[in-house]
Hints:
The structure is a homotetramer.
Chain A: E1 5-10, H1 17-27, E2 32-38, H2 43-52, H3 64-71, E3 82-85, H4 89-101, E4 105-108, H5 116-129, E5 133-135, H6 143-153, E6 160-168, H7 173-176, H8 179-184, H9 190-193, H10 198-214, E7 218-226, E8 237-244, E9 249-255, E10 264-271, E11 274-279, E12 286-290, E13 295-298, H11 307-310, H12 323-338, H13 351-369, E14 375-376
Parallel strand pairs in A: 1-2, 1-3, 3-4, 4-5, 6-9
Antiparallel strand pairs in A: 6-10, 7-8, 7-14, 8-9, 10-11, 11-12, 12-13
Helix pairs in contact in A: 1-12, 4-5, 5-13, 10-13
Amino acid sequence: MGAKIKLGILGGGGDSLIGVLHRVASNMFDQYEIVGGVFNPVWEKNIGFAEQIGLPVSRIYKDFETLISEEVKLPENERMQVVSILTPNFLHFPMAKKLLENGFHIICEKPLTTSYEEALILKEIQELTKTVFAVTYTYTGYPMVRQMRKLVESDALGKIQKVDVQYYQGWINSIIHDPEKRASTWRLQPDKSGISCCIGDIGTHAFGMIEFVTGLQVSKVLSDLNYLYADNVMDIDGTVLIHCSNGAKGVIRASQIATGEENSIIVKIYGEKAGLKWEQENPNYLYMMEEGQAIKVLKPGNGYNSELSLDGTKLPPGHPEGIFDAMGNIYKGVARAIKGEPYDSGEFPTIMDGIRGMNFIEQTIASNADGNVWKSID
Amino acid sequence: MGAKIKLGILGGGGDSLIGVLHRVASNMFDQYEIVGGVFNPVWEKNIGFAEQIGLPVSRIYKDFETLISEEVKLPENERMQVVSILTPNFLHFPMAKKLLENGFHIICEKPLTTSYEEALILKEIQELTKTVFAVTYTYTGYPMVRQMRKLVESDALGKIQKVDVQYYQGWINSIIHDPEKRASTWRLQPDKSGISCCIGDIGTHAFGMIEFVTGLQVSKVLSDLNYLYADNVMDIDGTVLIHCSNGAKGVIRASQIATGEENSIIVKIYGEKAGLKWEQENPNYLYMMEEGQAIKVLKPGNGYNSELSLDGTKLPPGHPEGIFDAMGNIYKGVARAIKGEPYDSGEFPTIMDGIRGMNFIEQTIASNADGNVWKSID
Amino acid sequence: MGAKIKLGILGGGGDSLIGVLHRVASNMFDQYEIVGGVFNPVWEKNIGFAEQIGLPVSRIYKDFETLISEEVKLPENERMQVVSILTPNFLHFPMAKKLLENGFHIICEKPLTTSYEEALILKEIQELTKTVFAVTYTYTGYPMVRQMRKLVESDALGKIQKVDVQYYQGWINSIIHDPEKRASTWRLQPDKSGISCCIGDIGTHAFGMIEFVTGLQVSKVLSDLNYLYADNVMDIDGTVLIHCSNGAKGVIRASQIATGEENSIIVKIYGEKAGLKWEQENPNYLYMMEEGQAIKVLKPGNGYNSELSLDGTKLPPGHPEGIFDAMGNIYKGVARAIKGEPYDSGEFPTIMDGIRGMNFIEQTIASNADGNVWKSID
Amino acid sequence: MGAKIKLGILGGGGDSLIGVLHRVASNMFDQYEIVGGVFNPVWEKNIGFAEQIGLPVSRIYKDFETLISEEVKLPENERMQVVSILTPNFLHFPMAKKLLENGFHIICEKPLTTSYEEALILKEIQELTKTVFAVTYTYTGYPMVRQMRKLVESDALGKIQKVDVQYYQGWINSIIHDPEKRASTWRLQPDKSGISCCIGDIGTHAFGMIEFVTGLQVSKVLSDLNYLYADNVMDIDGTVLIHCSNGAKGVIRASQIATGEENSIIVKIYGEKAGLKWEQENPNYLYMMEEGQAIKVLKPGNGYNSELSLDGTKLPPGHPEGIFDAMGNIYKGVARAIKGEPYDSGEFPTIMDGIRGMNFIEQTIASNADGNVWKSID
């Protein structure tokens, strides 16, 4: 192949977990080389972190504007090709916009922006510049999530008639019942987190999962959200009734007050011929239920899986892979796109998935605010 | 103790599964003796079945009116004390009404009646006659369901803040997509099954489970139901948003088109301090999730369980009991009530639970019919 | 059919759990009527218990000899046909011997006798009298255990090449480490319990399970047993290497010091074409692993199961049955045999299975005593 | 910290899975930089692979002798510090020996060597040169395996009284029954694979797991091995009875003919106070069973875990990590050792663990060959 793809990183310094995740993932298939970035607005911390992770400091910049202006001066074969945006949400838009305008490919954490409107603007520029733009809905990178998508695509389920996705966490429980904590946690402040907490942070994953796995679009939502306290203006739990583009009905259930739950994503898809079940905390098991037959348990790496699924497994069956591997699979797909190699549309979520996610958040909040009524998602 | 309680049975003959369930359950704790009944409207089948199960035919009657008129003539110590009603739903009301009026105790299959109105009438008579009236929401008889109730009661969960109960089956899938079958299946005919299929048959179980386990009342519902075909007038799937009497929000999910699911009831209850999870198809495992602690798996028969739970286990830990044992536990509780012995209110569901179930069905159907709006449950 | 089979019971009175199990099981398929027995050697307790379970006292006898002498005087159509022996182990032999000699059918708890020699004597009489003789290896009555047997029989696994059965409990842990308790527990006294504790009580179940499921005979054993303390002469844990009649090798693992285990029987059978896994504490799930294919999960009541398995399920799929149902299935099979109806050899274990179990115990203890050497099982 | 540790790699080129595993793991905590190595004995492939993974070719050598002679010429701050040996087993010894003699640290795949004798020689040199020598028993790097070790160490289980470790695979099934395949597969040729197939390849993992988790030494073995065909001289399945240094008895079960099994390692450890269970294919769940209490399910990343366990988790609870993360944890520990930082002895297996593994293999094969008799492990 030759040289690795040159990757820059915005954010993700210090003890940022998302930083670890992206660094490891980018390295997983020998495709990327981290060449620089901006890890922290404070210069000492920025440089210090680069040294800590063994990166030469020559291409560590004081801010993203400088990164862009300096990198574009470099010869094309040295220049950063793609930039991962791991900063707080409100920075995604200005960073992505300017990077796109200067021809960089982008890997952006979700949510894509803080509003649907911003998201549409990015889309316009991305189309003009013909850049690769991935949004890291990480869970779509799991081999068995990919397998679900391909099973639906291959018509193994028949027409989808019911969808049900859960994303339950319990972490905000220890915050929400304490007046001081809930007044001071940034996740619960609209100016820092946008219009939604639970739906924006995790409900979007459930939404994205449905569209990824079924290939359908969610067309309508009706929500009932939970705030628990009058002085809390951010949703921390909610149930969203949905209708899909093919008429199928379903439900998205998201919670951050599901006490004791860690990161419990459960996907259930039922078609006329068969149903599928998958749980994120035990991601190497996929259950397929065909009418009148023994339930089938599919596991990664086996020959009966689709190519898309197998492409996301590095070792033989029985060697469990986890969330880092899921993100690694997404980076692998992005590499193919950047290099102009053929790839399956299931290899990474694009800016369109990010845009739909923003629309979902806004419509879900509106449905609840307007008294639990239906809202359309274009 | 002396003699066993004299039990009569209406319905449940031939190869009726519900008949087997009630017969075995009634025998489980040496409390009941089946003395007679009406197993079938056709006399030969009625008598034939009695002989087949080794019952003397002297107290097999041609119809329930005769049963009542003959039994009341018998001396009190020979007379039937309690009657189990296992007939098609529309017969529950006339049978129960007349039995109550003649002083018989009743064990009635759910749904209690075909309308909320009928249910209220029965309630009035039952209060006057001070009879014992059990409605067999069988799943409440499982030791670990009882343990959930007692854990909530003991405040082990703190204030309940979120409830989520699923009841998914897939059996109607093979019927609903076939125009002829869906036109001819009695479950899908309102004149035979009342106003609801899915919500009436299984949604009520989910509803009853919430009220049984949490001790809360569901106060409001908003539903989105699924009919799949324009020529089908009975719901076969649906999601119901709920609000509880303490303000907690939640969701009931019921389906008969969840392809490949058998009888998947999943109960999730989250309080401020801890959460609980239980699955009916694996009923001997209860998961308790306390914040920041290892998840606890509780199993029947262990000393750490409540008395109510332990009362429902016959063998030492590790000997799994099933649905027959759950029904047996309900019969055991009813026996205590009939004999005037003390019992826990969790030992069997009463007519009040049946009445609330009827109200739930009617309001859920109305919510959907009126365009997915909130309806109150008194 | 006419009248039920007349059943007598020896032992199982008071709060005996095994008594409950046999009473409920005998009632499960409307086949038996308990007509009398001897529940306790103390007359008041004997009679008192009969009254407590609602049994007329006319056929409660003071001892088993009287039961036999009185019952044989009754007209044939009133006489007890089959007797269940639920007494302490050392009584099995004299009771069974005399019952057989007087033409009664027998359902006997395991272990059959206290020695292989006694067992052979019973066999001889049973053959002469042509009586039905069942030994209640209860776990063989589970629908999915029956399904394993039939899958092996149908060659779905190919030639069996490896067997591994575990039976782990932890209950003796709280006794064995206390010098006083271990000196006073009857299970640990050879005069009361025979030559073995762990192997005799639960190892035999594992042994019987292998022979039941595979249709093979265990031909050789080499054991390493655990006594933990020098003053304890009874095995409380052990591993037994085995060779089967077809050359397959395997292992039986039994323990009563597996701290925290309840009743963990795990069966793993591997053939040239497929493997099977089943766990007793979760008995409604059977895992079938065919090379290169998705794992299959088989559940009771589904049409893909064998007739033998389906015959042991009373309700539709998704309604879990437990240990009482397993015993009920065995009683159902015995009823068929008594009535001279056709039945599958997998419906209940016979005296031959009991005899082989005794031989297994003796050879396993001898293997360990002689320094972990191979011993044959005829 | 400054610069990353300079890592060389021997073997693991082409589509070697073990190569991927080590490359990703070495990168996981920003501690290592791969600077060169020998990926393939064929020069074109060697260089080609280096280019493919984006490595400069200047320090790709034609063989390991050249690697050593060239690297030692480099200034100390540029020189390779540690070398990972991923070649076929018979090369481990000569490579490790010469590397040690020249002062390189070593990360070596298991088995350490092809004989116990070679292993002892390496040990001698390693002690003289005071180098860091890790043997990659990867499974010890899982957070919940580390937690087991710490729970035992903290006396949470009390005295260990029973151990049982399974390692079942089914992959050789498709080879062993085909005379041609079994004659031509290198794993079944003693000249290529040493004296053992199953025990050497996976039995050692089970052995190492016991010693790692319990802190005990296995002191005696008695084995029964399976060859299936007379013309096959390599064990493909076996059960090993063991005695531990504290007197505890137990069993190691290993198989490559457990049809349909993928990589099923199951660890069960029972102490006087509590038991532990863990399964490799579902590695983020650890079951702790304390007498008379609800079973506890421990999951990675939670505060109730030990520091050693938490050090091996990168994201918050509920984000499953897999086998790559386990290897990454081992590399992280080795980095600490190389840098002279403090580390826990549970962070990586050392040459001593490799040596004991070799001894275990030889004694287990001897036990079977000599007629299933006990053999000591020093």
